[in-house]
Amino acid sequence: MYWPEPDAPDTKPDTPETVEKARFVWIDAGGNFERFANSKENILADLKKVKECGFTDIVVDVRPTTGDVLFDKTTAAHRLEKLDVWTSAGYAWVDRTASWDYLQTFIDYGHELGLNVYASINTFVGGYKCPYGMGTIGMLYRDEDRAGWATVINTADGFKSTLDPSIDDYGARFLNPANDDVQAYIIGILKDIAAYDVDGILLDRCRYSDEGLQTDFSDISREKFEAYAGVSLANYPEDIIAAGGSKLADGKQYMKQWLAFRAKTIHDFIVKAGDAVRGVNPEIKFGAYVGAWYSTYYESGVNWAHPDYNPAADGFTSWANADYRNYGYADHCDIMLIGAYASADRIYGTGEWSSQGFCTLAGKYLKNVPYAGGPDVGNSTGWVDGNRAADIPKVIDACINASSAGMFIFDLCHVRKFDYWNACRTGIDNYLDSLEK
């Protein structure tokens, strides 16, 4: 007990206030579509469990990789009507027949339960090529006038749109981030969401396509790069990277400048998007989800660090030139979610590819920007088949204590599928108990 000195004011000395860190759970559109698309009852039931576990925030995916949206108040986008998802009966189409507003339902129920509600979008995507011969879906395939927005891949057989039938890998079809029409379209969607009573907006897949260093090689990207670098390329793409090149070792004379240009493209979009969102609602929190593997994230065309962090001075000279640091965008975000997606047997550690190490290193890259790191408990190595309830409290401990603002778990569908509710509650209770010690 504190006893004041004689004649001293009867007040305790100042002590640092303990602030609880946030606990996010991500709600992927596809992973939860069968259960949530047409059932308010299922949404409410699961959100009650989320609250009981001790989570404080939910992140609701309202624009999956088809490019269509799960909210009604929009002038920019097409309302999502169906998704190809893994269901209880196998891989199949699930129709959305309900007329109620999906996003608004999560807002209403979430706020009623005392949860903060973030909306997320898959940013630079616009279609999906389905496996098992189920066809294609989404804006890029449906709208002929927007097919030119698709990213262009540098293949060994020349430049090809990601929509080209010869690109036979299934998955998301990306847009070209350097296209001004693409950026304006996505910002229109973000402004629509900002008009809802959401607590925040997070950008997912705000990057170049899954083909990495092979994109984007459109005429638009060439023109903008030449203007940025002050050069006229005699051979494109060979002045940057070998035809069909997919590795850093395939890079040529202008490779580092090209990587900086791509990072600048994403940086400048983040600035515009954040300004647009805050223009609708100055109180909203704006940020992004990124993968924690910073040392190779340049392949996605993104520098998610704070500009005060200098990767070239920190040993990443093989891909970062002196300008690269200038295109770190974290200082334009209120919150960052960091995917610390290590394997189940690499929870604790100090370097990349351990969940704790990923979160610790993020602090170096992000400086004072708040961030929450967390695991993928359904797709990362060792997590896929479940039976990891004993590891959930460990990974919560590793991530929440190594991150400045909290932790998150991807995804709610895995928590439900593997019955990790009690494990999540134990991990969060352990953290809360530690604050009282």
Give the SSE order as H and E letters.
EHHEEEHEEEHEEEHEHHEEHEHEHH
The tally of strands reads: 15
Spatial strand sequence of the major β-sheet:
1-2-5-11-12-13-14-15
Number of helices: 11
Would you identify the regions where 5 or more consecutive residues have pLDDT less than 50?
Answer: 1-15
Mean pLDDT: 95
Q: What structural category characterises the helix and strand content?
A: alpha/beta
Helix content, binned percent = 25-40%
From the alpha carbons, calculate the radius of gyration and give it in angstroms. Answer: 23 Å
Sheet with most strands: 8 strands, parallel, barrel
Distance between the termini: 16 Å
Binned strand content: 15-25%
Estimate the global geometry from the Cα principal axes.
globular
Task: Give a written overview of the molecule.
Helices cover 30% and strands 17% of the residues. It contains 11 helices and 15 strands. Helix 2 packs parallel to helix 11 and helix 8 runs parallel beside helix 9 (392-402). Mean pLDDT is 95; it is low at 1-15.
